[in-house]
Design goal:
InterPro entries: KR_dom, NAD(P)-bd_dom_sf, Sc_DH/Rdtase_CS, SDR_fam. Its EC number is 1.1.1.-. Residues 6-177 form the Ketoreductase domain. The chain is an alpha/beta fold. It has one domain: Rossmann fold (3-Layer(aba) Sandwich). The protein has helices spanning 16-27, 39-49, 61-75, 102-127, 148-151, 157-178, 195-198, 202-209, 221-233, and strands at 7-11, 31-36, 52-55, 78-83, 94-95, 98-99, 139-144, 182-189, 241-244. The termini are far apart.
Length: 253
């Protein structure tokens, strides 16, 4: 897909991987809708890129549908969705205070998996009726999983389950939407220098980076954004899950 003037919505676009992706796509000429639960962050990135900001909970069906329709009215037909919104809370199944609270597991699944699916289904429904582009393509969807989907650590049961669900739904959804010219791909990032890791301090960052085979550093969020751009621009790439992790394989803890 040629990104020039293509309308793309990025969830979690107010910071981290989402913001880096939005900046990368904007450089390629895309029109951006920045979706984030943090209204101030969404508005800041949207203002920087000349886009539209929508503050919402991605797992809220009504709010998400309204936001997409408003964005389409302002930006034109929706051609892309990048799901970066998510949370990374940890907790042992059986900890010092007893079993993991059910609501903690449920919240992670709700935001990461149900939120991604909610945005995907609503975006796809708006891509399907659009006029096809010159190669017959109507839209591109990129979901964010994690290496934890494959080698989750102790304390990551909820997070790994949520990201594993994202990996598992990639193929069936890509198969279903293929006849409409909508591609669905997934990126499973490893250890990236996002706000979460930035807050741990330089020494902790170095110790984490030392576990990565090559290059022995934390991932640059722009590398994630470039991978998203590659997916958009490579029409033959469909139903794929790409590990973007410097060959890291997570240890049990």
């Amino acid at each position: 897909m040629n990104l020039t003037d293509a309308h793309v919505a990025v969830t979690g676009g107010g910071s981290g991987l989402g913001a880096a992706t939005a900046r990368r796509l904007a450089k390629a000429g895309a029109k951006l809708t920045i979706v984030d639960r943090n209204a101030e962050a969404a508005e800041a990135v949207a203002a920087e890129l000349g886009g539209v900001a929508k503050a919402l909970d991605v797992a809220d069906p009504v709010a998400a549908e309204t936001a997409l329709d408003e964005a389409i009215a302002a930006q034109g037909p929706l051609r892309g969705l990048v799901n970066c919104a998510g949370i990374g809370e940890a907790g042992r199944v059986v900890g010092r205070e007893g079993p993991l609270p059910f609501e903690d597991f449920e919240r992670t699944i709700r935001v990461n998996l149900l939120g991604s699916f909610n945005m995907l289904r609503l975006a796809a429904a708006r891509m399907v009726p659009t006029d096809p582009l010159e190669d017959g393509e109507r839209g591109v969807i990129v979901n964010t999983a994690s290496v934890a989907a494959f080698d989750g650590q102790i304390g990551q049961a909820a997070y790994s389950a949520s990201k594993g669900g994202i990996v598992a739904m990639a193929l069936p959804i890509a198969r279903e939407l293929a006849k409409f010219g909508v591609r669905v791909n997934t990126i499973a990032p490893g250890l990236f220098l996002t706000p979460l890791l930035e807050g741990l301090g330089e020494e902790v960052q170095k110790s984490i980076a030392a576990t990565i085979p090559f290059p022995q550093r934390l991932g640059d969020p722009d590398e994630y954004g470039r991978t998203v751009q590659y997916i958009f621009e490579t029409a033959y790439l469909n139903a794929e899950v790409i590990r973007l992790d410097g060959a890291v394989r997570m240890q049990p803890k």
